[in-house]
Amino acid sequence: MKIVAKTDKGIVRDSNQDAYAVGEFPEEVAWAVVCDGMGGAAGGNIASALAVKVISDKINASYRPNMKDSSIKNMLDSALVAANIEVYDLADAKPELHGMGTTVVCAIVRNGYAYIAHAGDSRAYIFNGKELKQVTTDHSLVQDLVDKGQITKQEAEKHPNKNLITRAIGVDKSIDIDFDEITLSDEEILILCTDGLSNYVSDDEMISEVNDGRYYAFADRLVKKANNNGGGDNITVVAIAN
């Protein structure tokens, strides 16, 4: 299993509110978690860092070899719920942190499968060498409008409210989490990212940056492309290859 990752504050923001962690277990098992904080500079940084720590700790403490698929789903669900409680309680306890929260996308990859949990608009993609497929569905206002047929996907990309999300870790006492289980062949690569990438780099541009298959350069190239296209947000990219 091969993992590459990079985070960058971009060229407009003063600080980086993104956070991530990656790791491996024996027998070719990899995991990753990516968060994009919100709620002011201090709040966003704290929310994303805390969520990453809680989720990473839960995965490292709970993962066992030969876990059933359902057990992996339950583990990820429990990890995100725990992170939600920690971030919410901290925001509730400190007035200066009220309203802070973070998106999250995390994954376990093993035995040709990727198990993905997410809340918010940080994304997971699969790249098969030619095509890029978005696995996750954004929890956002514009995605809701697209789903209802009120705007097109193309209109959503330019919508003035495209950054308004409808789910996030730490905003409410409870969190609704989406879970995806997908096959991942030896030729396919899982890419996790924050919206600092997806809002500044089109699918076609992403494909152009990674279509030579040199996975070890993917994270660096995609971050550079986002910065070249304006770099208006923090950018985090994780790529996992078999």
- Name the shape in a single word: globular
* Estimated radius of gyration: 17 Å
Return the structural class: alpha+beta
How much strand content do the residues show?
A: 25-35%
Number of helices: 7
**Average predicted local confidence, pLDDT:** 93
In percent, how helical is the residue content?
Answer: 25-40%
Order of secondary-structure elements: EEEHHEEEEHHEEHHHE
Termini separation: 5 Å
Report on the architecture of this protein.
With 242 residues, the chain is an alpha+beta fold. The protein has seven helices and ten strands. It has helices spanning 40-62, 69-93, 141-147, 153-157, 195-198, 203-210, 218-228; strands at 2-8, 18-25, 29-38, 101-110, 113-119, 123-127, 132-134, 178-183, 189-193, 235-241. It has a five-stranded antiparallel sheet with strand order 1-10-9-6-7. Strands 2-3-4-5-8 form a five-stranded antiparallel sheet. Helix 1 runs antiparallel to helix 2 (69-93) and helix 6 packs across helix 7 (218-228). The longest helix is centred in the middle third of the chain and has 25 residues, at 69-93. The protein is globular. The N and C termini lie close together (5 Å).
Helix and strand layout, with pairings?
Layout: E1 2-8, E2 18-25, E3 29-38, H1 40-62, H2 69-93, E4 101-110, E5 113-119, E6 123-127, E7 132-134, H3 141-147, H4 153-157, E8 178-183, E9 189-193, H5 195-198, H6 203-210, H7 218-228, E10 235-241
Helix pairs in contact: 1-2, 6-7
